[in-house]
Structures are given as structure tokens and as C-alpha cells.
Amino acid sequence: MTALALVAALLGAPKAAAFSISSPQGVDVASWQHPGGAAINWREVSASGHRFAFVKATEGIGYVNPFFVADSKQAQNAGMLIGSYHMARPNSSATAQAAEYAAALATQPQPSLPPVLDIEYAENLGPAQLSAWVREFVTEIERLTGRKPIIYTYRYFWQENMANTSEFSDYPLWLAAYENRPPSDIPGGWNHMTFWQRADNGVVPGMVTVSDVNLFNGSEQQLNDFSAGIDVNLGEVLTAGIDLDAIGGRVAELEALGNNNRELVGAILAVAAGALAIGALVAVAQSQGIDLGPATELVDRVRGLIASGDLPVPDLQTMLQTGEYTIGDLLILLENAQHFAEQIG
């Protein structure tokens, strides 16, 4: 333990009051943000107020993001704190995936944020099998890197596919929750988020496509301390509202995305069953507060998933039956289904 870490441990790290306009914001990127090989202007990203960047490193076995090293170096050179993540594919060895991720991390400039396990695909594994897989991965990546990893997930996946286990609540949480206020219904026994992915359609200067945008639950100094391995007490569930427009990065529909998704899910299932014309889905989405453009994008995604046979009907039926998930949770599920069908990127 360093002298600085010892002082923090003895005195107690300050708590973050809430996500606020001073909360460091950041992006996470993969090859999707490089359509046609287009570059990201990381100096523009940094100048727009983004303080950290998670760059996809690996997925499953045998895939390394071809932009991982360049994005990491350029983001760091632009003054940003960098991180990385591994996209889990639980149908193959967790130990082997951790090893490939650790090897990729050895090529990333330092210092960096802790490694991240992105777990949002079940690949036909049940909750007990998935928990065992996650346990194996986080244990191995911590052994290989000496750092406690962050777990990235979203509510529907953790509650339904992981049976809402609280086994991993000692690991930092990065939660995807597309809505206008920090969510209070955090799964898995966690009492706070370390990072909050608040939207997937942020318009960020320096990028030719939209990007996932995130907030850190604390101050910039606490973010630096967290990256350095110093214990940071980020407090408990945060419910205070914040002005997301003031934080930067235009994001549409967040108020609507926090609404219950039951009516929209029911309409999608009706379309899949042939009981509703897909064109009518636009009107249903608009009735839920989604503007015409995003509503049309949603319908196009549903149409494509139906055509390819990849619409996640059992998951949609679960969402309809439970009635406790948001439109944002639905969009994450549909986006994941599309990406899974398209494989890696």
C-alpha cells in the first residue's frame, strides 16, 4: 500500500454527494465508432469535456479490437484517463478469455482504469452457470493483473439471467441505464454505481458516429484516486436529478427512456406474432414519448431482427410479464440482440 493509500484508508475517503454537473463524464468506444476506418479526433473529444474513455479491448476468444491500442494512446495523449473492457462470451472458457484480455492490457498505455468485464450475453447458460463463469473470470483477471475488475451490465440481464445474485456486489459496478436521473433500482445487491452509462446515442465532438456516454460517481480527484487503486467511498444509492443537457453531449429521449416499457414490448410482440402491422409500432413508440426519428430507428431495428430470426422473443415475454423494466432496458436488449447477430465489433 502506498503512503497516499494508507492516509486515505486511515482518514476515510470523502463520499460523493451525488452525480452532478461536476461529475466527470466520459465515453466508451469500440470498432463501431470507426465506420469505414474513420478516425476519432480524441483532442476534440477531450476538449468537449470528456475526462475518461473506456476502449473495447477483446471479445470472447480470438478477437482484439484493431483500434484498441491507437485509441488508447491518442485518448491518453489528449489528456484523458483511459480504461478498457472485455466483452464476455460465456459459451467458451472464462480463464482463456481472461488470459487474452490480460495480454491485450499489456499493450495499453499506463496509468489506466481497472479492467472491466462486460457481461450482457447469456448464450443459453442458466444463472448458476453464468455466476460460475463470472466468478472464474474476475478471479483470473485479478490474479493476472493484480487489479480488482469492474463489472459492466444492465438491469434486465443481471436480474433475469444472473438471478439478481449479490455475490459480486463487492466489485465496482458500471451500470447501463438509459434514463434522465441516476437510477435507484440498482440490481445485484450493489448500493451504488461507480460508473453510469446513461445513453448510447450521445453526439460527441470528434466522432463521426454517436457514442455511449457515461458519468463517474464522484469528483475528478476521486476518479484519479480510483484509477490509482486508492479506496474511494462513493456512498449509497443516488437519486438526485441532474441537468444532463448542461453536462454536454446532446442526448435525446432520456426522459421517455425511463418510462415503463410494457406497452411498447407488447406492441413489438404483437408485430412478431403478425397481430399488428409494423408501421403501427411507430405510433406506439411516439405515444410513449419517443420522437419520430428515434421511433423510426426502433422500428427499423425490430424489423431487421424479425427478418433475421433474431428478435429475443423469450426475453420480451419476460419483460412483458414482469412489467418492471424501462424503455431504456428494452433498447439495450434489442441493441445487444442486433450486435450478437452481427457478431463482434
Q: Count of helices?
A: 14
What is the 3D form?
A: globular
Mean model confidence by pLDDT: 88
Radius of gyration: 20 Å
Q: Helix share of residues?
A: 40-55%
| Count of the separate structural domains | 2
- What oligomeric state best describes the polypeptide chains here? single chain
Main sheet makeup: 8 strands, mixed, barrel
CATH class of the largest domain: Alpha Beta
Elements, N to C (H/E): HEHEEHEHEHEHEEEHHHHHHHH
The third-level CATH topology of the largest domain is TIM Barrel
First-last Cα distance: 38 Å
- Spans of 5+ residues with little confidence (pLDDT < 50)? 1-18, 237-241, 246-250
Query: What is the CATH-assigned architecture of the largest domain?
Result: Alpha-Beta Barrel
DSSP strand content:
5-15%
Write down how many β-strands occur, each being a DSSP E stretch of 2 or more residues: 9
Keywords: Glycosidase, Hydrolase, Signal
Family: Belongs to the glycosyl hydrolase 25 family.
Signal peptide: 1-18
Organism: Corynebacterium meridianum
Kindly describe this structure:
The protein has 345 residues and is α/β, with parallel strands linked by helices. The chain contains 14 helices and nine strands. The protein has helices at 3-11, 42-47, 68-77, 94-105, 127-145, 155-161, 220-227, 244-247, 254-257, 262-272, 280-287, 292-308, 313-322, 327-342, and strands spanning 25-29, 50-59, 63-64, 81-87, 116-118, 150-154, 173-176, 195-202, 211-216. Helix 2 links the parallel strand 1 and strand 2 (50-59). It is globular, with a radius of gyration of 20 Å.
